[in-house]
Every structure is written in C-alpha cells, then in structure tokens.
Amino acid sequence: MTTSIDRAEPEPVRAPTFARTIDRALVHRAAVSEVLVTDLVRTGPEDFLAGAQLPIGHPYFSDHVRTPVTYDFLLLLEAARQAGVAASHRQLGISLETTFLVNNWSIRIEDPLALAPGDRPGELALAGTVTPVTARNGRLRGVSSDVALSIAGRRVARTRIDVGTAKSADYGKLRFLQRRSTPPLTTELTNVLRSRPAAAAEVGRTHPANVVLGEPSLQGDSVSAQVEPLFENKSLFDHTYDHVPAMVLTEAARQLAHLSGVPTDATVTGCTADFTRFAELDSPLVATAHPEAAADGRTGRTVVFSQDGAPAGRIALEFTPAPVAAVLDGAAGGAAW
C-alpha cells in the first residue's frame, strides 16, 4: 500500500471539544461506548490536538481494588492509541481498510497526583504527532505516534506507539502464511472452558470477568500463569480478533505482577512493551514475571510471554506505592472517575 501525506494547510488552532465522540471507525472500535476520543484538530501535516472523555465508570478500566482511585494507565494508553489511529486516517490518508498491528508501546506517568478523580467525567487533552514509516519503494509499513496527555492543564503522561500496517484484504493471507493454517476467531471460542482462573482480588480486580490469567505457579523467584481471558468480555474484545491483542497482554502483565508480590494498591507509572509475534488463540500462552530493580521506592517487574517454545513478547512495568489518601484528595483537579 502506498500512501501520500496531505500537506494542506492545518486547521485554525483551537482547543479540542468534548461534546461528542468521533466516528468509531476512525479508532477501530465496534461499540460507540468504547470510543474515548471526542475531537481531533489538525495542527500540522503530522501534528494534532485531540480531546478524550475519560468515563465516569467503565466495566473494565474502572474495575480496580486500589484506593485512592485514579485514572488507569491503560485507559490513558487506549486514549492515545485511539487519537493516533484517528490522526493516521485523517491526516496521513491511510485507508480505513487497513489493519494496525501494535509492535511496541510505552507510557510514562509524569504526574500521578493529577490523575485523581473529581465529580465529572475527565477531559483529557492530547497533543501528538503521527509519523508514517515507509519502505524504499514508498510502500507504507507502519506509523509511529508520540502523544503528550494533560488533564486540567497539567501534563500527566507521555506515550509512544509503533504499529505495523497491512491492507485488510491482505491480512488474512499474511496470517495463513505465518501459521500455515487459518487462525480461529474469538467469536468461535466463547464457550471454550478455561482452567481455574486466578482470584480477582489477588490481581487487583473486583469483577471475575476482568481476570485474564489462570492460577499461578512458582519457580524460584519467578511466577508463571497461562493467559486465559474471557472472549465474551467486550471491553477487552470489542470486535472479532484472531489473536490476543496488545491491551490484553499488557493487562496480563500487570495482573501477573500483582500475583508475584506487587501490592494491588500500587499504581503502574511506567510501561514498556514489545510484541514480537502474534499471540495465538489456540495454543497455550504462558506469562512469566521476573522481579526488577526500580529507583525511588518503586517496584519493577518484567513479564515475558512464550508460546510453542518461542517468545511472544516482553513487558516491563514500574509500580509506585499508593500515596496517602489525604494528599491525593487534596490534589484533585478537573478530572473525574
């Protein structure tokens, strides 16, 4: 696929609005309720401003046992993903008939206190850049996005997401060549029995449907568990997949970190993830957590995913202990949970 970048003049710079969500097709979502982005303003050929409304209560993103409550790092990462995808379509001219495949992503929380909730849905401002990655012949190979996220004028996080791209018509052929067979779909596996899942409270969740791991096993200072999400969970599987998506793998890493000893009231303030191959649905996928040193009283875990004897990905997480509730309450800005 060859793409050309529209070099037309940018829109007049204005603040993003939060009145309604953008077209769900632009962010690759089936349900309007899963769309976070409310506005997209072009400020340059590859630069944009966006708005996103952070839900006041979400069956997945809001389901945590930690207190005080804060906006979750995966909610912020999903907002940045959606903004970058929408900008790729609108500003880089990438067809909607294109599949985006996450190669790697990272997020750094810069101001955890600014993520405290208020009494209204949060208004997240995103300022970012989408950069096309092309082969020598001009064929599009992927897109890199860098996004700064702010709430009530305070910068709270920065993300980077690198995706590969494929024409939707070619994607099935690619998967068949890699597997030498047609992969099953999540919609075909909704009645498949899982092994005994990990306890929800032990992985920082209240609802069992949000548990994505089986029971853990110990090997020295490492902890392993099989990745076994519920495909019926529409917050994790908004549309049909033929693999385990990056969001689920990142959630699995966080849950395994808790099973390995990280307190469930600790907050993820850093995440760096590399996805090296498709995580297949029809073969056991095992996650193993290893302790890592971290500075300033923080705790680190590196989670490695393996399948059929080959590595499938690696995610490094950094956790910050829960702050004193009174301090966090006093720092609440314009955000809401």
What's the structural blueprint in terms of helices and strands?
Blueprint: E1 37-42, E2 47-54, H1 73-92, E3 98-109, E4 122-134, E5 140-151, E6 154-167, H2 168-179, E7 217-219, E8 222-226, H3 246-259, E9 267-275, E10 285-292, E11 299-307, E12 310-320, H4 325-330
Antiparallel strand pairs: 1-2, 2-4, 3-6, 3-9, 4-5, 5-6, 7-8, 8-10, 9-12, 10-11, 11-12
What does the model show?
- A hairpin with a 4-residue loop joins strand 1 and strand 2 (47-54).
- The protein is globular, with a radius of gyration of 20 Å.
- The protein is 15% helix and 33% strand.
- Strands 1-2-4-5-6-3-9-12-11-10-8-7 form a twelve-stranded antiparallel sheet.
- It has helices at 73-92, 168-179, 246-259, 325-330; strands spanning 37-42, 47-54, 98-109, 122-134, 140-151, 154-167, 217-219, 222-226, 267-275, 285-292, 299-307, 310-320.
* Sheet with the most strands, sense and barrel status: 12 strands, antiparallel
The chain-level mean pLDDT equals 90
Q: What spatial order of strands do you see in the largest sheet?
A: 1-2-4-5-6-3-9-12-11-10-8-7
Q: SS-based structural class?
A: alpha+beta
Global shape = globular
Brief overview:
The protein is of the alpha+beta class. The chain is built from 4 helices and 12 strands; from the N terminus they run E-E-H-E-E-E-E-H-E-E-H-E-E-E-E-H.
